[in-house]
């Protein structure tokens, strides 16, 4: 999906033409009209590949609608604003301002990245959501964790134990090709746990992801979300990275 | 406020008829068994009881619904208290007030497992008491004077508080504290369960910015929640009482400020 490529590491290079920051820093000689001249592609909210109500009863349509239209949209908007502030600060050479905006970039950019992955991690039951992984990923899970059930239990335990807001991930280390279960706080993307980490699956355990439906019983949400997890996507990513 | 109570007393109670004959070996077998069993159950524990908010659960409507309070207090706050007591049953920590327990378990930044539960129990007690039915509007007297002194005006303070709340990333709290080092009021944000007590500041008002505090009533409209808190819920009565107490510990030292 276009948005995913925008925010993988590969895209943030001058060669792709999409990397705003690297390009900006290099082209600074052009002067202060840079902001308009560059024509940076702003981040946009990706469409959901299914209807808001399609994941019921695991996740209610109301939650999906709010989650996508309000929360993810807010991350996108604020991320774009933060990038504009960054560009202004960089072109003015205002180092304190550059540093000050990093928090907003990490939070909102991370939120955009994470949620873009999340929508792909989910699939309606009718379209294959919840079907366990086969072949390469299935074997890797059995090797690493013993069984799919063991992995699910581990992710649920870590997700439930996470204090505050964050994400629980099934991660692939590109270097060692090993799978692991990781958690990140707030909207930190998985790369903050390791530069070689690739997310196969992420589960949002922020309260906005489940509170309206499950109230404070996060374990119930975690138990039910597996009914709509898109293992096909995880398998595709896994096979691509281990090719 | 939750207090530490010894759950049972280590007993050296002697039956009055035995008073003159304290030798254990002279007691009948049945009596020995009774005393032994009584002593077996006398283990001193710390225990923190869940206190009610100082108003009925529907008293904050329409700004905070009864349903929110039922879940937030009845399930989440109660859950923290239950977890804390379970942990304390197997812990040597005893004899602390809740504030002391928080500072001890915070362990200078390397928190012990009890810290999260203890801090959240205290944070929520403090939060319920930071609100009242028909709250909001303006403080008065010494609190208002101190706010005007430290922020320039009440509306500056209000704007800064709202801004701080909106800038919180993730779960956390926004506090009006009396900064004991600088001897002035200031606004701080903390993440998750972190409480300004641990670095020695004195909290005056708090606002819970965890999503569970507002999601049922406001969904993602955080700004409305924070503004409603400022305009309709914040308890300046509580703030005044807390300032009075705080001034026993911090000399604000400005002779022109009347005592709250």
TrEMBL record, chain A:
<feature type="domain" description="Manganese/iron superoxide dismutase N-terminal">
    <location>
        <begin position="44"/>
        <end position="122"/>
    </location>
</feature>
<dbReference type="InterPro" id="IPR036314">
    <property type="entry name" value="SOD_C_sf"/>
</dbReference>
<keyword id="KW-0464">Manganese</keyword>
<dbReference type="InterPro" id="IPR019833">
    <property type="entry name" value="Mn/Fe_SOD_BS"/>
</dbReference>
<dbReference type="GO" id="GO:0004784">
    <property type="term" value="F:superoxide dismutase activity"/>
</dbReference>
<keyword id="KW-0560">Oxidoreductase</keyword>
<dbReference type="InterPro" id="IPR019832">
    <property type="entry name" value="Mn/Fe_SOD_C"/>
</dbReference>
<feature type="domain" description="Manganese/iron superoxide dismutase C-terminal">
    <location>
        <begin position="134"/>
        <end position="236"/>
    </location>
</feature>
<feature type="binding site">
    <location>
        <position position="208"/>
    </location>
    <ligand>
        <name>Mn(2+)</name>
    </ligand>
</feature>
<dbReference type="Pfam" id="PF02777">
    <property type="entry name" value="Sod_Fe_C"/>
</dbReference>
<protein>
    <recommendedName>
        <fullName>Superoxide dismutase</fullName>
        <ecNumber>1.15.1.1</ecNumber>
    </recommendedName>
</protein>
<keyword id="KW-0496">Mitochondrion</keyword>
<dbReference type="InterPro" id="IPR050265">
    <property type="entry name" value="Fe/Mn_Superoxide_Dismutase"/>
</dbReference>
<comment type="similarity">
    <text>Belongs to the iron/manganese superoxide dismutase family.</text>
</comment>
<dbReference type="Pfam" id="PF00081">
    <property type="entry name" value="Sod_Fe_N"/>
</dbReference>
<keyword id="KW-0479">Metal-binding</keyword>
<comment type="subunit">
    <text>Homotetramer.</text>
</comment>
<dbReference type="InterPro" id="IPR036324">
    <property type="entry name" value="Mn/Fe_SOD_N_sf"/>
</dbReference>
<dbReference type="GO" id="GO:0005759">
    <property type="term" value="C:mitochondrial matrix"/>
</dbReference>
<dbReference type="InterPro" id="IPR001189">
    <property type="entry name" value="Mn/Fe_SOD"/>
</dbReference>
<dbReference type="GO" id="GO:0030145">
    <property type="term" value="F:manganese ion binding"/>
</dbReference>
<dbReference type="InterPro" id="IPR019831">
    <property type="entry name" value="Mn/Fe_SOD_N"/>
</dbReference>
From TrEMBL, chain B:
<dbReference type="GO" id="GO:0046872">
    <property type="term" value="F:metal ion binding"/>
</dbReference>
<feature type="binding site">
    <location>
        <position position="208"/>
    </location>
    <ligand>
        <name>Mn(2+)</name>
    </ligand>
</feature>
<protein>
    <recommendedName>
        <fullName>Superoxide dismutase</fullName>
        <ecNumber>1.15.1.1</ecNumber>
    </recommendedName>
</protein>
<dbReference type="GO" id="GO:0042644">
    <property type="term" value="C:chloroplast nucleoid"/>
</dbReference>
<dbReference type="InterPro" id="IPR019832">
    <property type="entry name" value="Mn/Fe_SOD_C"/>
</dbReference>
<feature type="domain" description="Manganese/iron superoxide dismutase N-terminal">
    <location>
        <begin position="48"/>
        <end position="131"/>
    </location>
</feature>
<feature type="binding site">
    <location>
        <position position="72"/>
    </location>
    <ligand>
        <name>Mn(2+)</name>
    </ligand>
</feature>
<dbReference type="Pfam" id="PF00081">
    <property type="entry name" value="Sod_Fe_N"/>
</dbReference>
<dbReference type="InterPro" id="IPR019831">
    <property type="entry name" value="Mn/Fe_SOD_N"/>
</dbReference>
<dbReference type="GO" id="GO:0004784">
    <property type="term" value="F:superoxide dismutase activity"/>
</dbReference>
<comment type="similarity">
    <text>Belongs to the iron/manganese superoxide dismutase family.</text>
</comment>
<dbReference type="InterPro" id="IPR036324">
    <property type="entry name" value="Mn/Fe_SOD_N_sf"/>
</dbReference>
<keyword id="KW-0150">Chloroplast</keyword>
<feature type="binding site">
    <location>
        <position position="124"/>
    </location>
    <ligand>
        <name>Mn(2+)</name>
    </ligand>
</feature>
<dbReference type="InterPro" id="IPR036314">
    <property type="entry name" value="SOD_C_sf"/>
</dbReference>
<comment type="function">
    <text>Destroys radicals which are normally produced within the cells and which are toxic to biological systems.</text>
</comment>
<keyword id="KW-0934">Plastid</keyword>
<keyword id="KW-0479">Metal-binding</keyword>
<feature type="binding site">
    <location>
        <position position="212"/>
    </location>
    <ligand>
        <name>Mn(2+)</name>
    </ligand>
</feature>
<dbReference type="InterPro" id="IPR019833">
    <property type="entry name" value="Mn/Fe_SOD_BS"/>
</dbReference>
<keyword id="KW-0560">Oxidoreductase</keyword>
<feature type="domain" description="Manganese/iron superoxide dismutase C-terminal">
    <location>
        <begin position="142"/>
        <end position="241"/>
    </location>
</feature>
